């Protein structure tokens, strides 16, 4: 097992860090203050090969699945809001890729990014006032009228909502069927009936545009239904006849693939806060006077980084970040190499990344003390930016539910597998009286049910069985 980055991955990391330090960080305070879209940063990213369709293809081609995480972590180290402005279109592209036909993907995905030096944006609109985690309750409707679909409803909290060139919208065609009555539609720029509603004013990631998308008799050609009419009719038919679609586990598996990048994004914030605190304290920056009074160890009175109270905290933060990064790297590698994440490894990496970012920024603020509250220093911004990683792309509570359900399913699968092996053993004894063979098989069954081996291995066994 080799945990080191390849030469290409190391070079790419350095390229991203350089861009984040030279371009993103200097622009961050202004866009954070104004809540403005960082178009000039996006253009510069395009020039440096860090934005656009070729860039996305490069990330996807990495055999270890690490480039996407490196990109997310390094750019979020620069500024989470700007990083999200740069990568928000990938949500729309992922929506197109998971539901569209090859022709639809080829036509619309490039439009989410734009060609040459023209930067375009995509938006993926699912959430509604009453339906975020509870996605089956969507009320936005899509009705077929001749050779057009007519969409009506309001989407809320949509990244790039209203300013995107391509909106991918999930709507219901049959509300009775819950999520199985829903379909995805693509809406091109300038389509009448689509407009931006309220723009959100946010606590953090303020350089990323978030707004309502209002659809009022928005008419789009019938071919803008992703996946096509035949596929939708088959899906509705199955749902109405009560047959299982298998979609739920498919959707869960897809989310498992995308979540490590979200975990990596959160870690970029934690890493930035950690590095800054180290250098602040190394420069002799004051530490919380209460903390100083409580530190009664022999190191009291020494420079901050040599004091045991400070060392305890910094060591804990560094360890948590490393542990979360390993989860992210493993899940990303599993996703890229086709190892099934049946134990919820993707969700674990997102959950841990978000929790560590929030905990680390708060803990480091406690360590630094009142100076951390000042806008003169960047710690308060990282603290504000971190919180969103427990709220969007599946809240922390929802991640825990997903992990728990996948773990339970995995456990039951192991039990079933063990029972099957035991049944084979009994059958073998009955047919040829070979007790030794039966004993060996039963031992394997016991090992299978009790091993606690991780989901990937169990998934592999299942695949090869
Ligand atoms: C900055 C930002 C950008 C966003 N970008 C997009 C975007 O581009 N596209 C898009 O479609 N959406 C986007 N969203 C929406 C986001 O994905 C949702 O807000 C999120 O999924 C939560 O859904 P909700 O708002 O309905 O909250 P709710 O689901 O109502 O959650 C409220 C609280 O209840 C908890 N909860 C809910 N269900 C359960 C349960 N079963 N068990 C335990 N606890 C539960 C949640 O964890 C949360 O704490 C964005 C949101 C923000 C803030």
Structural description of this entry:
The chain has 4 domains: 7-112, Acyl-CoA dehydrogenase/oxidase, N-terminal domain (Butyryl-Coa Dehydrogenase, subunit A, domain 1, Orthogonal Bundle), CATH 1.10.540.10; 122-241, Butyryl-CoA Dehydrogenase, subunit A, domain 2, CATH 2.40.110.10; 252-394, Butyryl-CoA Dehydrogenase, subunit A, domain 3, CATH 1.20.140; 399-461. The strands form 2 sheets. The protein has a 4-stranded antiparallel β-sheet with strand order 2-3-7-6, with no helix packed on it. A 3-stranded mixed β-sheet has the order 1-4-5. With 465 residues, the chain is an alpha+beta fold. Helices cover 56% and strands 11% of the residues. It is built from 16 helices and 7 strands. The longest helix is centred in the last third of the chain and has 37 residues, at 396-432. Flavin-adenine dinucleotide (FAD) binds next to strand 1, strand 3 and helix 14. Flavin-adenine dinucleotide is lined by residues 91, 124-127, 132-134, 157-159, 205, 210, 388, 391-392, 395, 397-398, 401.
